[in-house]
C-alpha cells in the first residue's frame, strides 16, 4: 500500500510497516522488528515528534557511531545511561538466591588481558594507592569452584582506564584462575569515582537532561567456569558519594564492599609487608549453574 493511501496520523502506516516484516523466516526476528516498529511509532505519536527533532536524532546517532572506536563504544555508553543495559542484564540474568548479582558490562573490557598468578600485580605501575583484592569463587551451595577464570579491569586513581591513555601496555587489567579452594587474589589500586566519557553525544544528552556523568568507585569482574552461567559484575566501594546517583544505574546493595585502609609496614593477608599505606577488600563471587539459571 502506498503511503499516500494511508492514514498517516492513525494506525494504517504502522500496520503496513509491521506487515512488511511478516515474511521473515525467523519468528524471533519478526517479533523484535514488529514490536520495535509499534513502539517507535507510538513514541513519535505520543510526543508529536517534529521533523527538526527527527533530524536532530539522526544526527545524534550518526555522531554516536562516528566517535565509537575499538576502545570506546559510545553506543554501549548510550544504552548504559538510558538504563537499557541494566534492564537487559535483569532480564537475562535471573539468578537463584545467593548467587552474586550481575550488573553492566561497560565499554572498557578488552580481550587478551595479561595473565597473573594468584597474588599477582595487575596495576603495572598505574597511579593509585595499592589495594589487595581477594575472595573466593563459590557455587550457591557454598562449595569452591576450582579453576574458574576471573577477568578483572578498573580505572586508576585519576579516573581513567588504560585504553583511555597512551600507554605502552595494559594497566589495572588482567586475568587469573582460582585455586583448588576457589581462592583468587591480586594487587591493583584502590578504585575511585570517575565521570564516564562526556565529551561526545552521550555527554550532550546528560547535560540536556540535567544529569551528571559520575560513576561510583568500582572494580569490574567477569567470571566463567564450565557448567556455570557467566557472571559479569562490579564490586563497589562502600561510602562512595555516587552510590545513589550512578550514571549507568549499575549499583546494587549486595555488590558494595568495604575497602579497609592499612598503614605502611603492616603485614597484608598475603604475607607481604607493603612499604606504603594500602587497602584490602575481600569479596566472594558466587556462581549459579547453567541449570539453575534456565
Enumerate how many helices there are, as a single number. 6
Would you list the SSEs in sequence order as H and E? Answer: HHHHHEEEEEEHEEEEEEE
**Structural class label:** alpha/beta
* Overall helicity: 10-25%
Beta-strand share of residues: 15-25%
Rg for CA atoms: 23 Å
For the sheet with most strands, the description reads: 6 strands, mixed
Question: Which overall shape is indicated by the principal axes computed on the Cα atoms?
Answer: globular
Mean of all residue-level pLDDT scores: 94
Describe what is shown at a glance.
It is built from six helices and 13 strands. By secondary structure, it is of the alpha/beta class.
Topology:
Elements: H1 12-20, H2 27-47, H3 51-67, H4 74-81, H5 84-92, E1 120-121, E2 130-139, E3 149-153, E4 173-177, E5 183-189, E6 194-195, H6 201-208, E7 214-215, E8 218-224, E9 231-237, E10 256-257, E11 260-262, E12 278-282, E13 285-287
Parallel strand pairs: 1-5, 2-12, 2-13, 9-10
Antiparallel strand pairs: 2-5, 3-4, 3-8, 6-7, 8-9, 11-12
Amino acid at each position: 500500500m502506498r503511503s499516500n493511501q494511508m492514514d498517516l496520523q492513525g494506525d494504517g502506516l504502522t500496520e503496513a510497516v509491521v506487515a512488511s516484516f511478516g515474511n521473515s523466516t525467523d519468528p524471533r526476528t519478526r517479533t523484535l522488528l514488529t514490536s520495535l516498529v509499534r513502539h517507535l511509532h507510538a513514541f513519535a505519536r505520543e510526543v508529536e515528534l517534529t521533523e527538526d527533532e527527527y533530524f536532530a536524532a539522526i544526527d545524534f546517532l550518526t555522531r554516536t557511531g562516528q566517535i565509537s572506536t575499538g576502545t570506546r563504544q559510545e553506543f554501549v555508553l548510550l544504552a548504559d545511561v538510558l538504563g537499557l543495559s541494566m534492564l537487559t542484564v535483569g532480564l537475562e540474568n535471573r539468578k537463584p538466591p545467593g548467587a552474586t548479582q550481575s550488573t553492566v558490562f561497560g565499554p572498557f573490557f578488552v580481550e587478551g588481558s595479561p595473565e597473573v598468578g594468584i597474588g599477582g600485580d595487575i596495576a603495572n605501575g598505574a597511579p593509585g594507592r595499592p589495594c589487595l583484592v581477594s575472595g573466593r569463587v563459590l557455587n550457591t551451595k557454598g562449595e569452591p569452584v576450582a579453576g574458574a577464570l576471573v577477568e578483572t579491569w578498573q580505572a586508576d586513581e585519576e579516573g581513567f582506564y588504560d585504553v583511555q591513555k597512551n600507554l605502552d601496555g595494559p594497566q589495572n587489567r588482567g586475568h587469573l584462575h582460582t585455586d583448588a579452594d576457589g581462592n583468587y587474589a591480586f594487587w591493583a589500586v584502590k578504585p575511585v569515582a570517575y565521570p564516564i566519557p562526556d565529551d561526545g553525544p552521550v555527554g550532550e544528552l546528560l547535560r540536556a537532561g540535567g544529569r551528571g556523568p559520575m560513576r561510583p568507585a568500582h572494580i569490574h569482574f567477569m567470571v566463567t567456569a564450565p557448567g556455570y552461567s557467566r557472571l559479569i559484575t562490579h564490586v563497589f566501594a562502600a561510602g562512595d558519594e555516587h552510590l545513589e546517583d550512578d550514571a549507568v544505574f549499575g549499583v546494587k546493595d549486595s555488590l558494595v564492599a568495604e575497602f579497609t585502609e592499612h598503614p605502611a609496614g603492616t603485614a597484608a593477608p598475603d604475607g607481604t609487608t607493603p612499604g606504603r599505606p594500602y587497602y584490602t577488600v575481600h569479596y566472594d563471587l558466587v556462581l549459579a549453574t547453567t541449570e539453575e539459571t534456565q
